[in-house]
Design a protein that fits this description.
With 238 residues, the protein is of the alpha/beta class. The chain is built from eight helices and eleven strands. The strands form three sheets. A five-stranded parallel beta sheet has the order 2-1-3-4-5, with helices on both faces. It has a four-stranded antiparallel beta sheet with strand order 6-7-8-9, with no helix packed on it. The radius of gyration is 18 Å and the shape is elongated.
């Protein structure tokens, strides 16, 4: 995929540290992105209601609404927009909480500018990848389940519900690699765009959610199988 396709992408930068926000806006603009700034959670939500964005960079400790609440509200309205949390909160539980609310990536302060720019680029590329494969085959059925990868709606034997973006991307990746073993590290890299700094419990937690949604008996999975010391494998060959 050519980087030219992501040039001009519109980024909502939510950061209350003025000096950091100015510096990030300058460097992101130099990379060819269009940047709109918000200094607190309230302003971020107002801008999100009025404008369309391709990606959000979101601090957590913000006035009015913190980043966790902003992410939760935005994710309910827009399941596909990438969210990068940028924060001084580095505890593992904060990281897991942020990802569980729908953030796509999590970078702690202080950080290297090159790493942030690389993650932004990766998230925008992944957004285009997901949109491409969703356009080709948006509906997938297995067992008594049906998933619409375009709007993240799903249905099991008990009724309809919504998937988060990461749940949908994880499921899509496993289906694309049907009957193949994929490691936790591979899933972190390709679904979350993360190669380190994260406990692999995140993958395990999301697999547990998929089993709860789609397995006839989550304790004895038939679709989302664990492969000891190797990872996970999706199969619908019954």
């Amino acid at each position: 995929m050519k980087d030219a396709k992501i040039k001009g992408s519109k980024i909502l930068l939510v950061e209350d540290e003025e000096a950091l926000a100015v510096g990030l806006e300058f460097n992101l603009t130099e990379e060819g992105y269009s940047v709109v700034r918000a200094e607190d959670g309230k302003k971020a939500l107002e801008l999100f209601e009025k404008q369309e964005f391709d990606l959000i960079i979101l601090d957590i400790m913000l006035p009015y609404y913190d980043g966790f609440e902003v992410a939760r509200i935005i994710r309910e309205k827009s399941p596909q927009i990438p969210i990068l949390m940028l924060t001084a909160k580095s505890a593992p539980e904060d990281l897991v909480h942020g990802l569980a609310l729908g953030a796509d990536d999590y970078l702690t302060k202080p950080f290297h500018l090159e790493e942030l720019l690389a993650r932004v680029k990766g998230m925008l590329r992944r957004k285009m990848w997901y949109k491409g494969i969703s356009d080709i085959r948006s509906i997938f059925r297995f067992g008594e389940n049906e998933v619409n990868f375009e709007n993240f709606s799903a249905r099991n034997k008990n009724g309809s519900f919504k998937l988060t973006m990461h749940e949908a991307m994880l499921l899509k990746y496993l289906i694309e690699n049907k009957n193949k073993i994929v490691s936790r590290q591979e899933l972190l890299k390709n679904v979350w765009n993360i190669t380190s700094q994260i406990d692999t419990r995140t993958v395990d937690n999301f697999i547990a959610r998929l089993r709860k949604y789609f397995e006839p008996d989550a304790a004895n999975p038939i679709y989302f199988k664990s492969v000891r010391s190797a990872g996970y494998m999706f199969s619908d060959d019954q």
